[in-house]
Design goal:
By secondary structure, the protein is α/β, with parallel strands linked by helices. Helices cover 46% and strands 17% of the residues. An 8-stranded mixed sheet has the order 14-24-23-16-17-18-19-15. The protein has an 8-stranded parallel β-barrel with strand order 26-27-28-29-30-31-32-33, surrounded by 5 helices. The protein binds phosphoenolpyruvate (PEP) and magnesium ion (MG). Magnesium ion binds at residues 706, 745, 766, 768-769.
Amino acid sequence: MEKFVYKFAEGNGSMRELLGGKGANLAEMTRLGMPVPNGFTVTTEACTRYYEDGERINETIEGQIFDYLNDLEETVGKKLGSLDNPLLVSVRSGARASMPGMMDTILNLGMNDEVVEVIAKKTNNPRFAYDSYRRFIQMFADVVMELNKSRFEQFIDRRKEAKGVKLDTELDVDDLKGLVEDFKTFYQHELNQPFPQDPKEQLIAAVKAVFRSWENPRAIFYRKMNDIPSSWGTAVNVQMMVFGNMGETSGTGVAFTRNPATGEKALFGEFLMNAQGEDVVAGVRTPQSIDHLKEVMPQCYDQFVSICDKLEHHYHDMQDMEFTIEEGKLYMLQTRNGKRTAAAALKIACDLVDEGLITTDQALMMVDPKQLDALLHPQFDAQELKNATVLTHGLAASPGAATGEVCFTAEEAIKRANSGHKVILVRLETSPEDIEGMHVAQGILTVRGGMTSHAAVVARGMGTCCVSGCGDITINEEALTFTVNGQTFNDGDYISLDGSTGNVYGIAIKTVPATISGDFQRFMSWADARRTLQVRTNADTPKDAAQAVQFGAQGIGLIRTEHMFFEGERIKAVREMIVSKSLAQRQKALAKLLPMQQGDFEAIYEVMQGLPVTVRYLDPPLHEFLPTSSYDIDQLAKDMGITSNELRNVITSLHEFNPMMGHRGCRLAVTYPEIAQMQTEAVIQAAINVNKRHPEYHIVPEIMIPLVGEVNELKFVKDVVVKKAEEVIARNNVTLDYKIGTMIEIPRAALLADEIAQEAEFFSFGTNDLTQMTFGFSRDDAGNFLKDYYDRKIYESDPFAHLDQKGVGKLVAMAAKLGRETRPNIKLGICGEHGGDPASIEFCHKVGLNYVSCSPYRVPIARLAAAQAAIKNEMK
Ligand code: PEP
Ligand code: MG
């Protein structure tokens, strides 16, 4: 019979796919003899089956859950619902990849009206018993029955107010008994059924709820952001409860073996005495630093330190752990590789290599390429920062600098960000519902919550600047204001956050680009030594090119020449060229453009200092450059000496129903060879001029003809280019090598790549257009309906962001093979957006491309992703 449940003692750390990360690590800690409360894991396959069976737990799975429950009860000598020795359990989700705070947890399951009495007597601690019961009702109602938790909080606040106290801990047993009654009555009222008293019914309902939570909107959003397939499912861990809220010798906490913000090698964490886990994470009470545990409970502290050490040596990585102390005894509830900032990730990777715990290959594999982004993001302008006064101070939860308008809700943040505003999300504390708002915000500021609060953990993962636990702030949610140190800020006012110091400023402060150093260079040099793929950049200006070179680009894979056409006065000449009615007119306009293009190319060649530079010839449909406003039309008509009406007629005649499949790419050069001639003149003359100034550069221009679908079409344009290039070279009386290649971005070109390679010295895969044309999805419009495809699970990710390896990838692989058959040394690259996407880069490595080309800020990501692809492929 298929096995859907494993007790911790049956599993191990390598069973993450089946048991989820949490389950596998609990099993591994059990195997290592660490103090882990007993329990069992319902597998990810049970979750998949639950969905296959129409969201129901079938008899086999339910039977196995109860068998393992029996076994657990026998092992620990307690029984769910027993009035002699009741067992309480926690029910927690645990997917293969850690998804912090994304899914739901239920604690104290097994409580009911009778059990609470027994526990009160047995522990001689009725306050603890009733506190646990009210928490359970609250969590069960929230997670299983989807009754909002905050509605229960109102009952607590009312009790505190009536009593004139501030903290939950100041409520006594009678208050808590009263709360339990309030909660149950509210439950009955809202749900039309009593709070369930049968613990087995509670258990199955809780397991179902965890399975269900795999499909909640926050989990779906997190999966999309992190490329986690929905088919994985989540496991469910059922574990005997241990209690951190049993009094002053009990407590609970979370800790990292190294500082997750800086990477510093020192135990880092927080705990609260007389509390349950949710109190630490939710930020309801402000926890104490883990070092303080040494004084409060020295023995537990020593034992904990030694376990941390063992775990780090065992997993060869920084660990993030949860623990509980029940009446002086330490229990480990979780360990996982800790989330960390990008700077910390690099420091930890380098330190672990220096400590001899890992190899450089392992170090490269442990950093998520996308994380490097955070190192490359802006900091505050030093001078402006010096002159700014600190408004208040919170915890430096996630580094970076951010400036934006104050916004008090996630929905509002999304709305404003969508209309182009920069926002700072200001919240009392964040919860997983806020995730989309956090994602669009420049920075996040919270009043409550420590370094391990939801806001801190999630912001760090996203690389978003965050200041948390800023207790001086009072938020008025009704009035949409916050007050701090006598100053009031309204919705929409500008503030700035420094996530590296925890400082908050009441003004906008200029930000400057990031600087990278230290561990980054060392780490990236390991990546460079490992990768076989070259990394180039897509850059259209000398400034972007210089930035990319600083980030390690080995050349330019794509200059979109049309991007140079919009600047300043140029657009006038471009428009003149487009609306020209005769060759002579067009040549006159092109003559104006020539020096500008040539100047741009010279500047780029200077910056690139002899590194390869691929110039792509004019590509987009011409109407994109046409004037639309009456003023612009009148101006242009005047410049050209024609009437506005004449010009309007020309504009109308250039209209296309489907411009992306219309008169663009090499088709322009077929109709107007003079455009390709002008661009050739500019490219070749610029190379000659710069070679003269810097003979050591040996510039070999690479000319790229876009949107080719037929070899004769390429040959036609190529002949034009060669003729002009030779003319310019002869005129200058020099020798110059140059290459002519094409983009493979039309399916027909991929199918006939062997023929095309007869004329092309290189191919660059334009996977933006190739995706558009392979799917038949408009690049510009697909966003409108792709969402429905994700919702219906037809596609899981955006094919314009992650290469569709099955379909588009098949064309790429085929074209690479066919191209090489004709021309064995043909150079192959990719310059679509996928060139900066780690999963797509791995694909490019496997297909054997020579290089990927991506935007400057993605160059370091591509370097690391290329190294990881090489390492992974060797391991296979
Ligand atoms: C492409 O199509 O992939 C490409 C790089 O060209 P563009 O995005 O300019 O069409
Ligand atoms: Mg294209």
